[in-house]
Design brief:
The protein is α/β, with parallel strands linked by helices and 416 residues long. 33% of the residues lie in helices and 19% in strands.
């Protein structure tokens, strides 16, 4: 079996809007009430997928979830007239950020030799807490082969779990046994610490990973308070490399030492706060990047244009590239519509190490399939959604029809 890393990006849904529902997410708060552009957003996301496919990487996708979600409102005895935020939650397209869909442990790390996926309950935020049942349904379609995959329901809601956005894996290569790093929060100042330690420990047990090769690390409360609501806003790992801000972890030296003890070949690239402040890192989403192993064997960093255009961040990146370090390429992409809601390139993807042949092929992309999706988006996705349009019955029908057109085009009748 040939194991490779596959990035599954979420197709940005036709109800993409800026309702400012995510407490602690600075971009979401700053753009609350602005007009969104769902068609442009989805096309930007597809362009990023095409970019990674052109690099020679295997690329997958996950589908938008059904929205507006009337079942969410019914479950709380509401129709949306009581509170505009409840109505907006039912319209949220936040499932596009698949880094929060699940936590993934590849087969080389697990006791039964299967890849394990546990859907994230996302209970801290109401607009996200409704996602996981539909996410599990989709994951069980994509990873249905019981010889190679085990898909778990979300852990109990008393333990908040935010998925892969608070989980990192390091290894000599993707197909080798690795170490798994679960990052949790205890305090976030004025903002909630979304990832609970016990949720992380529950996922590790469910996946059957070796406790001796598992780390549980506290996120720096200062980072959470500054707007790093997930660890992937301040750190990202790939194979032997950890790329991190100096202030990402509560005990950075202890964290680095524990990683090196388990993976002696680990290379830790630390961005000092003196060069890029925590505020600049969060504003630019420098670390919410895809750190990828390219077919050549070198590592590349896919960053948002906002990071490339930020003077201090750009200066640090230029110095890094000149230093002959482990990250040899930096590739900016335009995902501005996602960024305006607090989601960079890393938010949009879930990393799964697996043999592509074991996955439902409908979820894997090629150029022809991207073109088909783009055609549906161009024809059916709304060009814009203003804050006053959320709840409009005619727009709701258009959003539902747009998603149905995508499902029909991609032969996903069972996910209607």
């Amino acid at each position: 079996m040939s194991l490779v890393e596959i990035n599954f990006d979420g197709i940005i849904g036709p109800s993409h809007n800026y309702a400012g529902l995510s407490l602690g997410n600075i971009a979401s708060a700053n753009n609350a009430g602005d007009t969104s552009f769902p068609r442009a957003a989805a096309l930007q996301g597809l362009s990023k997928m095409r970019h990674n496919l052109a690099l020679g990487l295997v690329q997958g996708f996950l589908l938008p979830l059904p929205r507006p979600n009337g079942a969410f409102l019914s479950a709380i005895g509401a129709n949306g007239s009581e509170d505009r935020r409840l109505l907006a939650a039912a319209w949220s397209a936040s499932a596009m950020w698949t880094a929060n869909a699940a936590t993934v442990s590849p087969a080389p790390d697990t006791a039964d030799g299967r890849c394990h996926l546990t859907a994230a309950n996302l209970v801290t935020m109401p607009h996200r807490s409704q996602e996981w049942p539909d996410t599990v349904k989709q994951l069980r379609l994509a990873f249905a082969n019981p010889e190679h995959f085990a898909v778990h329901d979300a852990v109990p809601a008393c333990f908040g779990d935010e998925g892969a956005a608070n989980h990192m894996r390091m290894s000599a290569s993707h197909g080798d046994p690795g170490i798994e790093i679960f990052v949790y929060g205890k305090s976030g100042g004025p903002f909630p610490a979304r990832q609970h330690e016990q949720a992380s420990r529950a996922v590790a047990r469910l996946h059957g990973i070796d406790p001796a090769r598992t780390l549980f690390v506290e996120q720096n409360p200062e980072a959470i308070a500054a707007g790093a609501f997930h660890n992937d806003v301040v750190a990202v790992a790939n194979e032997r490399v950890l790329f991190t801000h100096e202030l990402a972890f509560a005990d950075p030296e202890g964290t680095y030492g524990a990683i090196r003890d388990l993976l002696p070949e680990a290379e830790i690239v630390i961005v000092p706060a003196a060069a890029v402040s925590l505020a600049d890192a969060i504003k630019s989403y420098l670390f919410n990047a895809q750190l990828l192993t390219l077919p050549s064997g070198e590592m590349g960093l896919v960053i948002p244009l906002e990071a490339w255009e930020h003077p201090k961040v750009r200066a640090w990146l230029d110095g890094m590239l000149a230093s002959n370090g482990p990250i040899r390429r930096v590739m900016p992409v335009d995902v501005r519509q996602s960024m305006a809601n607090g989601g960079g390139p890393a938010c949009l993807r879930l990393r799964v190490v697996a043999d592509p042949a074991t996955i439902d092929q409908r979820f894997l992309l090629d150029e022809k399939k991207i073109a088909r999706i783009e055609a549906v988006v161009t024809e059916h996705w709304p060009a814009s959604i203003g804050a006053d349009q959320i709840g409009d019955p005619a727009l709701a029908m258009r959003i539902i029809a747009a998603r149905q057109a995508l499902l029909a085009t991609l032969d996903f009748a069972e996910f209607g």
